[in-house]
Amino acid sequence: MHFDQNPLITIIIAVFNGAKTLQQCIDSVAEQTYLNKQLIIIDGGSNDGTIELLKANDHRIGYWISEPDKGIYNAWNKGLLKAEGDWICFLGADDYFWDHNVLEKMSLQLEKLPIDINVVYGQIMLIGSNDEELYLSGESWDKVKQRFKQLMSIPHPGTMHSRRLFEKHGGFDESFQIAGDYELLLRELKISDAEFIPNLITVGMLQGGISSSFQNALVQLQEVRRAQLKHNLGLPSIRWIMAIFRVYIRMILWQVLGEKNTRRFLDFGRSIMGLPPHWTRTE
Questions:
Q1: pLDDT tens track for 258-269
Q2: Mean pLDDT (the chain, rounded)
Q3: Cα distance between residue 204 and residue 133, in whole Å
Q4: CA nearest 129: which of 203, 207, 202, 21?
Q5: What are the b/e assignments for 266-279, b being 16+ CB within 10 Å?
Q6: Three-class DSSP category at 182
Q7: CATH top class, domain 9-206
Q8: Distance CA 113, CA 103 (A)
């Protein structure tokens, strides 16, 4: 195992019935200028043409399997058993590397890291309806370090995890449905630092996935709290309480105003706070 020049980077993709977007994801990996990479795809037993797509791309995939699983973290753990990389990142089937040079640029930064850094991330571009670019997500570690103990505050798609992290902490806790990535990172980052790579957009992430609905947002926040309790982080923070409050307000507005008006109202609120529109652009 080496952590100097040209580290081997493993990309693990979990998919279930993702035929509409998976080809773009595979293409974005295969077309990377960085050659020292391994692609692993774990399919949960799709029946929408995903398996045929995997067979057609077999020559571009280091390892793939299609069988029923117990969710995304079970799938990622399966991928970890086959991962050979010095660094490992995870994508959903509707994510894709932002340009052909992402891994090349990232590898140059990985070569320079102190030995105690096990988590490295950049920014991701959130993508709305009609492939519309919404806004960037991801801030420097100095800005989000304390916030991370309160809420998930770094974008997980495309984040690089050192092999050392899994040797030290094990794999994902499969009892989580949505916040298992937060819980895994919390094991490391509650006492250690991550490294932010400025001016690097790593991944385009389509909005409308598992974390998009209000109900799933509620489950995610509940799981975030469970992860914090698991790691003895004490009482819930004001940030967490306010996040829960916002989800309930959105759910009430949805019932009272209907979907379209709620989207408009929420984006009006974002404009007042100086934030770009989100809800009206992710229908």
A1: 888 988 999 899
A2: 92
A3: 9
A4: 207
A5: bbeeeeeeeeebbb
A6: helix
A7: alpha beta
A8: 15
Residue 194 CB burial class (10 angstroms; 0-12, 13-18, ≥19): buried
Predicted pLDDT at 10: 98
Distance of CA 201 to CAs 60, 95, 102, 133, 238, Å? Answer: 24, 13, 8, 12, 30
Residues present in the chain in total:
283
Q: Which of 110-114, 121-125, 275-279 has the highest mean pLDDT?
A: 121-125
* Class of residue 236 by CB neighbours under 10 A (exposed 0-12, middle 13-18, buried 19+): middle
What are the residue boundaries of the structural domains of the chain, listed by start? 9-206, 214-281
192, 75 Cβ separation under 8 angstroms: no
What is the per-residue pLDDT for 208?
Answer: 65
State the maximum Cα–Cα separation within the chain, in Å, rounded to a whole number: 57
Question: 């980077």: which residue's tokens?
Answer: 9
Amino acid at 159: T
Q: What is the 3-state secondary structure (H, E, C) of 9-24?
A: EEEEEEECCCHHHHHH
